[in-house]
Write a sequence for this structure.
């Protein structure tokens, strides 16, 4: 599940148990990334607050576009898959895959296409961003506040991806159930590997985690 030892749901107490419960209530299971925060649950809480503060000023489509572009540029397969899937609420899977290839499908506005380029640049090398990059966004109708929001979204994604990728967080079952072509197209870094489990031990462990959270 990760490169470090983590606390199983059935052994969690206090703040760690509360963190697992929040994740379970949101997803219906405890995502693998949550377990690596068991040693510092307050960091997860602060991350959630940061995300909430950033997202408050953006519509969902823009947030997901920028987050996906940054995650893919940062070569985080898990974040690319999660936010690529979220983008299919607004775009076709084919268009999401096109964005992953660095293209700008016709379903995007000129401003959105520019936002993607800007987000990738922030994620890959923020020091390479120039005043001209910002002026281009302004010329397409974006305000200074909106440009800040886009920048903060991409920069925050860098923190998150570097934590989960550095600690070897593995894919959760929903990623493995995705359409194979879509999953392969959005694989930006570590491959998603399905672990053979003929005895069903993974399902048993998942059920035990669910039972532990419900107690």
């Amino acid at each position: 599940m990760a490169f470090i030892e983590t606390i199983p749901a059935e052994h969690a107490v206090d703040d760690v148990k509360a963190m697992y419960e929040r994740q379970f209530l949101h997803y219906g299971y405890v995502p693998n990334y949550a377990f690596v925060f068991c040693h510092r649950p307050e960091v997860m809480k602060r991350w959630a607050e940061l995300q909430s503060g950033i997202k408050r000023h953006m519509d969902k489509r823009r947030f997901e576009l920028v987050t996906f572009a940054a995650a893919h540029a940062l070569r985080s397969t898990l974040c690319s898959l999660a936010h690529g899937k979220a983008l299919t609420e607004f775009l076709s899977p084919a268009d999401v895959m096109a964005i992953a290839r660095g293209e700008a499908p016709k379903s995007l506005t000129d401003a959105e296409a520019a936002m993607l380029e800007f987000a990738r640049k922030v994620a890959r090398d923020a020091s390479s961003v120039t005043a001209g990059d910002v002026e281009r966004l302004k010329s397409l109708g974006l305000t200074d506040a909106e440009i800040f929001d886009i920048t903060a979204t991409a920069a925050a994604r860098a923190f998150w991806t570097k934590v989960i990728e550095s600690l070897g967080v593995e894919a959760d079952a929903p990623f493995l159930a995705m359409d194979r072509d879509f999953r392969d197209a959005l694989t930006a870094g570590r491959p998603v590997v399905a672990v053979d489990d003929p005895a069903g031990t993974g399902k048993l462990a998942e059920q035990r985690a669910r039972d532990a959270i419900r107690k």
Summary: Residues 195-206 have pLDDT under 50 and may be disordered. The chain has two domains: 1-56, 59-163+173-191. Residues 1-56 form one domain.
